[in-house]
Design a protein that fits this description.
Number of strands: 3
Shape: globular
Order of helices and strands: HHEHEEH
Number of helices: 4
Strand content: 5-15%
Radius of gyration: 13 Å
Structural class: alpha/beta
């Protein structure tokens, strides 16, 4: 991992846009070039999308399907299959 942000250290939590912005600044990556993968429909998927990142939902049975723009994967390594889509 190049960058790890811990909510308690940052003083904020997802879906606050600033936590995504801090990660992007640390990585020197613009939001429209970044993907965020998560399983929670609000804090991960909606939060990432609101911060300008491409949101990817790792489908899980205990959360409802997110609303708004996102891609769907079943397993984390399925992200690799999305690389050719960009």
């Amino acid at each position: 991992m190049d960058v790890i942000l811990i909510s308690e250290r940052e003083g904020m939590r997802k879906p606050e846009p600033e936590i995504f912005a801090r990660a992007l600044r640390a990585l020197h990556v613009p939001a429209d070039d970044a993907w965020f993968v998560g399983d929670h429909p609000v804090v991960d998927v909606a939060g990432a999308a609101a911060a300008g990142l491409s949101a990817i939902w790792r489908r899980c049975s205990y959360w409802p399907t997110p609303t708004g723009p996102h891609r769907v994967i079943e397993r984390l390594d399925d992200v690799l299959s999305l690389l050719g889509d960009e």
